[in-house]
Amino acid sequence: MPCALRPTAFSPSPNQTREVRAGIEVAVSKAEMERRLCEADCWFAHTLRCVADGVVVTDPPTTVRFINPAAEAVAWLPGGGCPVCGE
């Protein structure tokens, strides 16, 4: 008579359960922080786009990271090109 296959259950040890739970909590926390950071970035970018004054944001090596429409309007001087990108 052939052997009948029976399903077996996997029962993790208490240590494995804690590790899995901790991993899930870290992943959920990281996703929440990334969501909040994205919301903050969007809010700041929208705010800077709406400012009437020209705003240019650079990083420490002076790479332009953001330029709002008011700054773009004054950046392109007749015959001089853009002082930021040279175009």
Looking at this protein, list some descriptive labels.
single chain, 87 residues, mainly alpha, 2 domains, two-stranded antiparallel ribbon, 2 strands, rod-shaped
Write a structural description.
- Helix content is 51%, strand content 8%.
- It is rod-shaped.
- The chain has two domains: 15-50; 52-82, no CATH class.
- The chain is mainly α.
- A two-stranded antiparallel sheet has the order 1-2.
- It contains two helices and two strands.
How helical, in percent, are the residues? 40-55%
| Class computed from helices, strands and strand pairing | mainly alpha
Number of strands: 2
Series of secondary-structure elements, N-terminal to C-terminal: HEEH
Rough shape?
rod-shaped
Averaging pLDDT over every residue, what do you get? 79
User: Please, how many helices?
Assistant: 2
> Any idea how many domains?
2
Largest pleated sheet: 2 strands, antiparallel
Main β-sheet, spatial strand arrangement: 1-2
How far is the first residue's CA from the last residue's CA?
A: 84 Å
How much of the residues is beta strand, in percent? Answer: 5-15%
> Unreliable stretches, pLDDT < 50, 5 or more residues?
none
- CA radius of gyration is 27 Å
